[in-house]
Amino acid sequence: MEKQESLTVEDKRKLAEKRAAELKQRIEPYLKARENIPTGMKLIEKQQKQKQKILDLLGATEDDWKDWRWQLKNRFTTVEQLGKILNLTDREKQEIEEVGRKYRWAISPYYVSLMDPDDPNCPVRRQAVPAIQELQDVMGEDDPMGEEFTSPVPSITRRYPDRLIIKVTNQCAMYCRHCQRRRNIGEVDKATPKEQLEQALDYVRKHPEIRDVLLTGGDAFMLSEERLDWLLGELDKIEHVEIKRLGSRTPVTMPQRITPELCEVLAKHHPVYVNTHFNTPKEVTPEAAEACDRLTRAGVPLGNQAVLLKGINNDPHVMKKLNHELLKIRVRPYYIFHAKPVSGTTHFITRVEEGIDIMEQLRGQTSGLAIPTYIINAPHGYGKTPMLPEYLISSGKDFITIRTWEGRVMKYPNKDEMEQ
Ligand code: SF4
User: Fold this and answer.
1) Range of the domain at 321
2) Number of domains in the chain
3) Ligand 1 pocket by C-beta < 6 Å: which residues?
4) SS3 label, residue 197
5) Helix, strand, or coil here: 302?
6) Is position 142 within any domain?
7) Which of 249, 253, 280 has most ligand 1 atoms within 8 Å of its beta carbon, as the pocket-test mutant?
8) At 362, is the pLDDT very low, low, confident or very high (cuts 50, 70, 90)?
9) Contact of 185 with 218, CB cutoff 8 Å
10) Same domain, 413 and 353
């Protein structure tokens, strides 16, 4: 490039235009691809039709639909029922029955309404409807992260110096087919007994280094408002607990759960953060947006923890679209987890290179806010390990060599003091 001082204003403008055209070209493939990516916002009409079909089937009203307890009570748990809303082949029906004998399933009417009735590969359907591959898995383990060995007292998992998890229930609004805590999702839904929660709180009280407590399960929002209020209140009384976090997939699978009453409880106990789990742009619907809006209005910052899943979101364009859709509803993409080898779920696992490629196609191509961290959970509970494309090529005494997001290899000064 010519020395900048020798360029006229007009030359500079032309260069800027050329660069802008070059930049636009970089995202042309995405701009084309995104037209064909189904999103919850684009599919409103279809969803409304499915919803009406479900209401008719269950003899329910619009008010029932908005009531999370109705959603929970009326979860789809039989093939017969599901077959009335989705077009299932006899073989699919038989396979769902077979898998259901080993791994439980239950899907909220709302989440069923997001499914494409004709497409077995619909990303919403694949996350919820049992598939025969779950029984064919030979490489999965029940607890590949060794959570059982990082639990100093029942219902606590501690893998890091300054924070820990309290598992407050094993219940979820829906039982995801890729669930990484499948072993905890038993046949009976149960909240962690109060005595066990007391024990967990006691552990936190006795460990002043714990400044961050994550309530999860299962799904933390399956607890009643009263129980959550009590638990958050007890944590508030512990001086060294600086923040509370809650993990819930209800904004995705049962957004009706995000009631004004729940938000009121959360707002009483700030700072409270919520991480949720959207995996596909199809899940970002007006109802999910409304739930997230309620949470953010209650002052709760929202993050998203997606899992990289084969056939669902292992595509750079889909992942980018998901992150853009999330930012529009004020959810910050936080992590993309590499799927763990959990029994019955390994058909969802991708190669790590696919995750790296996704990260490569996000960085620079879109806002930093739309870029989560891609994580592998190290075996034996040794924690989250970020997986990154390589940007630092080499380091020397006075210079490092970097690779930019566009693949330009450049030197960058690396000195204690810049020479005058
Ligand atoms: S909501 Fe989370 S914990 Fe519950 S089944 Fe789904 S992935 Fe597992």
Assistant:
1) 147-386
2) 4
3) 172, 175-176, 179, 181, 185, 218-219, 249
4) helix
5) strand
6) no
7) 249
8) very high
9) yes
10) no
